[in-house]
């Protein structure tokens, strides 16, 4: 059955992108596949292919930290459903991904048949999680995380990149070099980021971003 014409596969590992390509082609005949290996590449792909029907998104890619990429992508492109495809298979991670806007969660250990099943289900408008995840599973998202996630969406794509680099410990000078802009431009971005996230320092911004970490031990950092 023809459910979609275009799917974006976002993963920084070529071998796993190849596996996803095989699963997608198996699930949907005649589908057009667009590949991306970083969050910036995903954003560019979404702009160039606004008619995309689905994004398959790895949580661990260059340009993103934990759930921040998912939150930002969904906020910027609410009309395109996202399935998280991740090696993190804890129930809390799966449930938080759904709570942050994903339409499904596929463990990287899943078979091609399972991946195909998940893709078809989400394209039909359903939510998909592995069968062994019970309906009464808990969602580990605090009110503080929700507020930060809502504020995160207000950032521009460039401000989001700057925040990600701050989270990686880069200085303004290093960020300016990486983005090929002036240090003064980065300082202006940082000021705007602090204002939008309602924090008073770079350190507070980084700690807030770390609350969206995939690692449950880091989501409660103060």
TrEMBL record:
GO biological process: phosphorelay signal transduction system; regulation of DNA-templated transcription
InterPro entries per record: CheY-like_superfamily, EvgA-like, NreC/VraR/RcsB-like_REC, Sig_transdc_resp-reg_receiver, Tscrpt_reg_LuxR_C
Recorded superkingdom: Bacteria
UniProt xrefs under CDD domains: LuxR_C_like, REC_NarL-like
Start and end residues of each Response regulatory domain: 6-123
Residues bearing PTM 4-aspartylphosphate: 58
Record key words, sorted: Phosphoprotein
Pfam families membership: GerE, Response_reg
Sequence ranges assigned to domain HTH luxR-type in this UniProt record: 148-213
PROSITE patterns: HTH_LUXR_1 (PS00622), HTH_LUXR_2 (PS50043), RESPONSE_REGULATORY (PS50110)
The protein's name in its UniProt record: Two component transcriptional regulator, LuxR family
Protein source organism: Neptunomonas antarctica
Lineage: Bacteria, Pseudomonadati, Pseudomonadota, Gammaproteobacteria, Oceanospirillales
């Amino acid at each position: 059955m023809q459910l979609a014409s275009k799917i974006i596969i976002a993963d920084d590992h070529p071998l796993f992108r190849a596996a996803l390509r095989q699963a997608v082609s198996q699930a949907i005949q005649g589908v057009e596949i667009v590949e991306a290996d970083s969050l910036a590449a995903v954003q560019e792909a979404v702009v160039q292919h606004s008619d995309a029907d689905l994004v398959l998104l790895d949580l661990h890619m260059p340009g993103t930290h934990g759930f921040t990429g998912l939150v930002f992508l969904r906020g910027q492109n609410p009309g395109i459903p996202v399935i998280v495809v991740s090696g993190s298979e804890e129930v809390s991670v799966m449930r938080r991904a759904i709570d942050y806007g994903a339409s499904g969660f596929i463990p990287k250990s899943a078979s091609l048949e399972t991946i195909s099943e998940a893709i078809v289900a989400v394209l039909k408008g359903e939510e998909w999680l592995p069968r062994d995840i019970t309906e009464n599973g808990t969602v580990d998202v605090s009110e503080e995380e929700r507020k930060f996630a809502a504020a995160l969406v207000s950032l521009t794509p460039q401000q989001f990149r700057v925040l990600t680099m701050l989270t990686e410990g880069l200085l303004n000078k290093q960020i300016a070099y990486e983005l090929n802009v002036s240090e003064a431009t980065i300082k202006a971005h940082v000021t705007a980021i602090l204002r939008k996230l309602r924090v008073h320092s770079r350190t507070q911004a980084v700690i807030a971003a770390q609350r969206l970490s995939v690692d449950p031990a880091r989501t409660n950092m103060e």
